């Protein structure tokens, strides 16, 4: 007898659902989409027809569905706390889009809710799944680069004004902020997974003349890590036409450059290595201009975590670290002084 497929439902069918739905179609051999739910029923009907699943009429119906093992939550951040609380109470595992919530305090509440209910909480930080990022993680873990000395993250992305004209986009009420929590958060999460915790930051955040929006579309910071390494962060959605994000890690034995999904490493003994490819990253006018491969691998990992009982690759508690870093950057910019970064799960 073949093993039962893992049952996953989907809540939220906005722009960010596209790679999720494409990924789920590719994972049909091991994952069954038990149904979809969206506040606008027309989107639910269309998505259900394309996938071949049912339309749920409410989140409560998903919580009561015995075929649903876990739920992918793709709603705006301000809607997640109540949804995840209901799902966790029903014993449903949760894979949520980033950020976990709008603030670190709200994100921590979600993490603790899931921990008390003993359900898995995964977070969609798909940049960790790129081939280049995976290889870089292996090199850092094995100490191949030596001691980390300098880390530079650059996110030169572009969003037209029409992107921020969507009600709530870039607002504190719906999104929790601007470029840091909505775009740069991917690179910053990956960075911290490699460097370990940041100790303090000195930052400057602003809204450029490019956009009319409530929150920041530009942020820059100097960072000191607990390991003694130092570095810089520059993130914006005001650089036309937008380019691939990059991270450079200088170690005592070599330097790694990760640009988009492509990794190049140069060791000081003359060796070199390349891994991955430079594909679309969503850094331009179309935020969804990237393949679904990274989502596919992340969802597959989450489903395996449900089946085996191990934590997913990116846990909710691990995601609190990037929330704390963003908080410190915003605080530093507001106060005009260095700010400490709260320690989370390291």
Automatic annotation (TrEMBL):
Note the InterPro entries from the entry. Answer: Gfo/Idh/MocA-like_OxRdtase_N (IPR000683), Gfo/Idh/MocA_oxidoreduct (IPR051317), GFO_IDH_MocA-like_dom (IPR055170), NAD(P)-bd_dom_sf (IPR036291)
User: What SUPFAM superfamilies does this protein map onto?
Assistant: Glyceraldehyde-3-phosphate dehydrogenase-like, C-terminal domain, NAD(P)-binding Rossmann-fold domains
An MF annotation (GO) of this entry: nucleotide binding
Domain named Gfo/Idh/MocA-like oxidoreductase N-terminal: which ranges?
Answer: 8-123
One Pfam family named in its UniProt record = GFO_IDH_MocA_C3
Residue stretches making up the GFO/IDH/MocA-like oxidoreductase domain:
134-256
Q: What Gene3D superfamilies would the database entry show?
A: Dihydrodipicolinate Reductase, domain 2, NAD(P)-binding Rossmann-like Domain
Q: What is this protein called?
A: Putative dehydrogenase
């Amino acid at each position: 007898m073949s093993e039962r497929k893992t049952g996953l439902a989907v809540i939220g069918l906005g722009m960010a659902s596209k790679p999720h739905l494409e990924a789920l179609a590719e994972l049909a051999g091991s994952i069954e989409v038990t149904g979809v739910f969206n506040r606008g029923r027309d989107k639910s009907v269309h998505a259900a027809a394309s996938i071949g699943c049912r339309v749920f009429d409410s989140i409560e119906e998903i919580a009561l569905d015995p075929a649903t093992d876990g739920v992918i939550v793709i709603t705006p951040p301000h809607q997640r706390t109540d949804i995840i609380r209901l799902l966790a109470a029903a014993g449903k595992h949760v894979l949520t889009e980033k950020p976990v919530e709008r603030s670190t305090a709200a994100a921590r509440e979600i993490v603790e809710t899931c921990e008390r209910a003993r359900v898995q909480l995964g977070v969609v930080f798909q940049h960790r799944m790129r081939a280049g990022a995976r290889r870089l993680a292996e090199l850092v873990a094995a100490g191949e680069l030596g001691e980390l000395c300098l880390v530079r993250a650059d996110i030169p992305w572009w969003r037209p004004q029409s992107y921020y004209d969507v009600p709530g986009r870039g607002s504190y009420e719906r999104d929790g902020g601007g470029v840091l929590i909505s775009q740069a958060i991917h690179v910053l999460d990956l960075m911290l997974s490699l460097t370990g915790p940041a100790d303090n930051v000195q930052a400057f955040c602003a809204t450029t003349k490019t956009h009319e929006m409530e929150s920041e579309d530009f942020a820059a910071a100097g960072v000191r890590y607990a390991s003694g390494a130092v570095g810089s962060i520059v993130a914006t959605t005001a650089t036309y036409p937008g380019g691939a994000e990059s991270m450079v890690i200088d170690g005592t034995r070599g330097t790694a450059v990760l640009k988009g999904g492509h990794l190049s490493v140069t060791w000081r003994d003359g060796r070199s290595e390349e891994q991955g490819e430079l594909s679309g990253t969503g850094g331009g006018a179309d935020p969804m201009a990237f393949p679904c491969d990274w989502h596919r691998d992340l969802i597959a990992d989450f489903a395996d975590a449900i089946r085996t009982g191990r934590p997913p690759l990116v846990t909710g508690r691990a995601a609190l670290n990037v929330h704390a870093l963003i908080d410190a950057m915003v605080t530093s910019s507001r106060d005009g002084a260095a700010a400490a970064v709260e320690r989370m799960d390291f």
